[in-house]
Amino acid sequence: MSSDNQSQILSRLQGIVGEDKVKTDQDSLDTFGKDWTKIYEPKPLAIVFPKSTEEVAELVKAANELEFAIVPSGGRTGLSAGAVAANGEVVIALDRMNTISDFNAIDRTVRCGAGVITEQLQDYAEEQGLFYPVDFASAGSSQIGGNIGTNAGGIKVIKYGMTRDWVAGMKVVTGKGDVLELNKDLVKNNTGYDLRQLFIGGEGTLGIVTEATMRLDRAPKDLSVLVLGVPEFEAIMDVLHAFQNKLDLTAFEFFSDKAMRKVLARGDVPAPFETQAEYYALLEFEAENEELVNSAMEVFEYCVEQGWVLDGVISQSETQAQNLWRLREDISETIAEWTPYKNDISVVVSKVPPFLREIEEVVNREYPDFEIIWFGHIGDGNLHLNILKPEGLAKEEFFEKCAKVSTWVFEIVEKYQGSVSAEHGVGMTKKPYLQYTRSEVEIEYMRAMKRVFDPKNVMNPGKVIDL
């Protein structure tokens, strides 16, 4: 791009949002031009901070007219490079669109700007005596717009579902610059195609979500947490089945002993019990009365008798419950220093044990020096495979070797009819592997939809699919 073209674009951007809301300094470019992935170097042209849907629409129209690309940016906590601007794009950062309004106690809904932080919405719901259940480790920095763009899931999916289950309606700016108000917050609306669902999980490739009406729920009461030591992975599924037969679980997570050891080594949280196990299951349920607690203890004792559980602990206070959760929630942050190569994959729950076993066999056979850290939302079939970089191995060489691992892993995903991306999106890192989950016919229909909403390919180009 010539310097004249750059000057013209920057001038147009400043005219829309104001000179002080267009950043071109290196620190801003580095900060807002990337997400949590470390594979691609950020190289955006500029960062703009709109305040309204109207300004976003004007920015998109300018992109169509002046032929520059746009990358929407939320909390930048993504793990698939969906928010990386590596090719001179203009980043539209939605941080200023962070207001919460129009709370409706009867409908249990609230309107959020795309830049509202997930935790901000959770706290607001709590102030109203309600609950926003979509939750994950990045809740303190991820934004609602980004959650919608990736259909974020997290730790409560087994009971509450994904982000898409909580979006009552939303306002979007398409790749043409058109403003659409989708679904009008209705519960029942059978008037043809639900365009809302195309933008949920669309990763900003069809347009930008600027505002959303989110549903809220009854706040759970008296949550109790159980952590159980399990001798082998297959037994986790038996434990899940046994507890689901007796209790309505709000969460069912798992992590390997290797994962927990990394967390315990920091000294921030205590071990749950002295007995060491190969794997651990974390269960959460509402202990509203003594009968429910007794049922949980009966199931626990049954699991011990069957040899599925070696030891366990149930929270006796909110502080203990929080510490037990930290054994699972602190894993990602803890292993970050090893530059982990992450894969977020899923299959139907019943297929998880042989699926995990095949993946472990391949990685251990090909790269015996690589340490594997497993954890995930086992209650919904979502596994997080983390391969830690050995000390002394260059990052570039490590990622090159892991790219081969991905191919082997995704061949197993295809065999089990699973997904190459359970909740982190496709972005750039998963795009080469999309065919392992989606057929070529499906991908062509996706391209056709992209051409309808974004004919000039200005919206997050190079992500999810190529035209």
Automatic annotation (TrEMBL):
> Catalytic activity annotated for this protein?
(R)-2-hydroxyglutarate + A = 2-oxoglutarate + AH2
Tell me which cofactor or cofactors this protein depends on.
Answer: FAD
InterPro entries, per database record: FAD-bd_oxidored_4_C, FAD-bd_PCMH, FAD-bd_PCMH-like_sf, FAD-bd_PCMH_sub1, FAD-bd_PCMH_sub2, FAD-linked_Oxase-like_C, FAD-oxidored/transferase_4, Oxid_FAD_bind_N
Q: Which top EC class is named for this enzyme in its record?
A: oxidoreductase
Residue ranges of domain FAD-binding PCMH-type in the record = 40-219
Which GO annotations describe the biological process of this protein?
respiratory electron transport chain
Q: Name one GO molecular function term.
A: FAD binding
**By its UniProt entry, which PROSITE patterns does this protein fall under?**
FAD_PCMH
Keyword Transferase among record annotations: no
Task: Provide the alphabetized UniProt keywords.
Answer: FAD, Flavoprotein, Metal-binding, Oxidoreductase, Zinc
Please report a single Pfam family linked to this protein.
Answer: FAD-oxidase_C
Q: What is its EC number?
A: 1.1.99.39
Q: Which domain of life is it from?
A: Bacteria
Task: Respond yes or no to whether keyword ATP-binding is given for this record.
Answer: no
Q: Subunit composition?
A: Homodimer.
Q: Which family does it belong to?
A: Belongs to the FAD-binding oxidoreductase/transferase type 4 family.
What is this protein called in UniProt? D-2-hydroxyglutarate dehydrogenase
